[in-house]
Amino acid sequence: MSQNTARPVPKNSVDREAFRDMCRKFAQKEIGPRWQQADKESKFPMEFYHAACKAGLIGLHAPESLGGAGLGVTEEAISIEEQAKVNPNLAVMALIQGVAGSLLWEHGNDGHHQIAKANNAGECLLALAVTEPEAGSDVQSIKTTAKREGDQWVLDGTKSFITLAGDCDTLLVLARTDPAKGRHGMHFFAVDRRTPGVQTSQIKTYANRPLPTYRVMFNNAKVPESRRLGAGFGAIMAGFNRERVMVCARWLGHMQTTLAWALDYAKVRQQFGKPIGANQSIAFQLAQGHVDVEASRLYTYHAASRWDSGAPIQDIILDVSSAKLFVTQAVYRVTQSALHIGGGWGITEELPVMRMALDALVAPVTVGAYEIQLRVIAKQLQLPVD
Length: 386
Ligand SMILES: Cc1cc2nc3c(=O)[nH]c(=O)nc-3n(C[C@H](O)[C@H](O)[C@H](O)COP(=O)(O)OP(=O)(O)OC[C@H]3O[C@@H](n4cnc5c(N)ncnc54)[C@H](O)[C@@H]3O)c2cc1C
Prior knowledge:
386 residues; alpha+beta; Butyryl-Coa Dehydrogenase, subunit A, domain 1; Butyryl-CoA Dehydrogenase, subunit A, domain 2; Butyryl-CoA Dehydrogenase, subunit A, domain 3; 3 domains; binds flavin-adenine dinucleotide
């Protein structure tokens, strides 16, 4: 499907307030008791994936024939926002399943559809392997190759920052199948993680720890032709637009929890015989935080509704990138203000705010950093940037 082609609109709908309420209860029950241990151990709690599938929150956007709900990106955003209010990292699990799963059902064969079905049923966790050590923002420069040998492909190369790669069952790997064709000579492969020649090693991070990220090495890894998807670079560029909407929902959720904490603290913490929130310099930061949350909400759900309208990708890029840029800058402002308001106690383990600020540090980076969004926006404004 080209960037200029109209896309299908969601088949089903729900009562969104009731759905949000269900998501909120799910997040409190399934994320609340788990995230701290996962954060401490840098270990993904696999039972959380199973619980999300059981609650019907994986495959929200997938067709019903594959065990999905046939809903829109708006419902996915609601689910992720509510999960991120409890923990912004575990919420990303569903986000990745949505983006990787849609590659399978939009561009795959019957075998790929069965993987998507298993994913929605809680039997096959997915990871999305695009980034490489030398190819982050510049996806076109990936080096991983897939060479045809009879009815199979041989994969060689290294991927980096692949969330859940050490936990997943299947990796969706972008590789060069015809290097002479540049970005047109790339395909995705649905690779069983346990394939000989596939190795993973965790990349230790200060933040984002409940959802660990990995290096993945492919060394003469043989994958059947039937596992090759009929899509590559173009599909992931479209997928990134969808992922950016989800990322907005993630940081919108996190921002609300952080602001609520900072508001409470500013009202309760007394210095010079009055709450610190009685000082204009503190109160104004919180007032700005309120505006950031409300503007982020409008931006996020506007971008989601544009996606669900079925308009061609080309027509929604400006809205999506603008939303992603604004929301990821807003969460940075809100979490930095909250940390400042926490004072010295803010950086102790006695308050939650340092964790909140640390987790938000990744906001400007993933799925296209600030500068990449600005570049996209500038291009959409017909500016002659390269
Ligand atoms: C926690 C985490 C999870 C991730 N999960 C996944 C995953 O599951 N799958 C996956 O494939 N990838 C994943 N990524 C990778 C992520 O998408 C990349 O980190 C991101 O694309 C940026 O690439 P980079 O880190 O190599 O930074 P670089 O591309 O090296 O960028 C470094 C800096 O240079 C700036 N820059 C780059 N190009 C330009 C330019 N043209 N003009 C101006 N400034 C520029 C960037 O904005 C950034 O500030 C993850 C990353 C993190 C941190």
